[in-house]
Amino acid sequence: MNCPSFSQSPSALAPAAVPGVESPSGVPPQELMRWLERDNQLLQVRLGIASSLFLALRCKSSHTASHSLRVTMLTGAWAAALGLPEEQRDRLEVASLLHDIGKIGVPDHILLKPGPLSPDEAQVMEQYRLLGTEILRPSCKVPEVLDIVHHCAAWYDGSRTGWELRGDAIPLGARMLAIADAYDAMTTEQVYRPAMSPEMALAELYRCSGRQFDPSLVREFAHFQAKNPQQYHRQVLRRWVAELAEHQAAMWGPAECSPVPKADRPWAAFCKRHLETTRTGVIFVDRFLKIFYWNPGAERLTGISADSAEDRLFVPELLHLRDEDGTAIREADFPVQQAIARAEQRYRRVILRTRCGRDLVVDMHAAPVLDSQGVLQGVVVSLSDVSPELSLVARCQSLYEMATRDPLTQVANRAEFDRVHALFVKAHLERRLPCSLILADLDHFKQINDTYGHQAGDEVLKSFAKLLKSSCRAGDVVARYGGEEFVILCPDCDQAAAARRAEHIRRTLAQMPQASLGGKACTASFGVTELQPGDSPQSMLARADRALYKAKEAGRNVVVQLGSGLGACQDVPSQTHDHHPQQGLLVQQWLATPVPPAVAVQKLRGFVADHRVKVLGVHENRAELLVDSSGGFLRRWSDRRNSLVVELSFFQCPQDHGTASSTQVKVQILQRRLRNRRRQELQERARQVLAALKAYLMAGQAGQEAPGPQDPHTSQLQPVAIDRLWETSTKEN
Fold first, then answer.
1. Helix (H, G, I), strand (E, B) or coil at 357
2. Would residue 389 show up in a list of annotated catalytic residues for this protein?
3. What is the pLDDT of residue 403?
4. pTM of the full predicted structure?
């Protein structure tokens, strides 16, 4: 389809896939790239003469180009769900593809900087939006596209300097693009921060609604994400490809590539496998200090993914490198810089700071790479862990090696997984380290058994287990949990990284021919979650199971994430009331969450389901729950001899600037029976329950003291009739 926004001048554009980049919006970029590779005219037809600009952007920053593609898919799918007219969707998609084109004019030392920007550098970055409009103006025919690109940086309340429009005066496409742009940025891992979970990103959109974003569109976007967005993404892909077929141009096509000599293929495969499996971190850096390879060993040591590290500058600030005495390493003393300057190998023992904030002692070896003419091409950097104590991952690896195997698939069995899972949860909660869980289930496995026989089904199970093991890092635990259901326990791994791994497994399985099925492939659905405050092994597994159920509801062969992780909220000492007039009160605290009451009630339902909480009653704005005081699951409720009663009162707090209503919750946790000899133990359990509620509700502490009936704090609050919301959410579930 020719977009009316740009003059049509033929230009060949061969989009190159960005390895390992995942799509937080639900569609893997590799799937998009497969569509693009079918015909290299796609972006040329979509963008016309401006396709060369997108190619220039990719050459400048593959991360930015990949981000633009993901945002385009997200805005296109959202626009389809809203039922916007075709012409409006076209202009929004073109603007989304090119909204970051101004970054072409940003110097590399600013665009690729791994650390925070200085005030002067931040000012340069602020100008790239205006620069993008000027770059597009000579080739753009339709003002609406320029308006979207220009005004997508404007804040809804008009408070951002440099943009004159505010509120609904900002074009609809610009308001939608601003939300999709922020959502993708938050849910994509960056070298300077981990990715947010989808739930936390939505909470941040709610928090900034009315000020930075259109509150009504934020609600619409959250509703779109809660539905089945995958079907709309597929519609966008089909529309692009189908309409492209009408504009075939025989003169345009991919350049012929010389095949790799057969003698080189085994050598390359062996090298690739070695780099993927070695525990040593291996990094390839060109002579300009730009990273172009970052192996899984480097991911494990640093906690930084290859997606966020590659194409960045490898400077000491990237890993906060220091000498053994703690002195920050200067660039002049940086082994990689010295290897480039002198074309000589350099060794040095350094301390690096991992993503989760731990210091790690490593030996850094920088070896220059010269071509046959003696010209420096770059440096191979290796990082070897020489910490005096065994890391948690090493201990996890020893546990894995001792695991009892499932006789068919040769992965850990359920009993061994349950034992190791409990150890992992305890260790990671104590150290506040991320730990993720992937639950996978083969789709329509009964049909495989019924059609091809149980022996063929067994072969599929063994093939799937082999794929899971080959896709994991050292220290991960793969187990067969039951039937066709498998689980992967990922220590020192946040939810975003686990979701990327699950997506890689999903794609590989869907393309893998199964000999026992006559060469046909099978698929699997995946649920992913991360350990969060107040979790037990059972609640963590239950949350992953809910995510798996949602994946099957979405049509199977998809990855769904649930949960917010350990970083969802900071533990704040709760108010304890040993002398409170209400007997048995253990903990009382007011919580504030940016999401509206309906969303908060949905999150509370997740807490009830995952922690197997008994609902005693829901009346008007109050909910009363019964929680096991042991922290685990007892067989019968009669076994819960001194359970905790959790009383929740929901209030709505309208905010300024027309924002969506936030929610405040008064939490009181009481002993069900008064037994003073267990009070200290029960108070600790009550704090764990409060931490879990904070994580599920994505809430923080609203105040140091709970307001009283005459407190001005409560005069602004309006009770929320959650009994009706509870009934509605029950029907939806």
1. coil
2. no
3. 58
4. 0.72
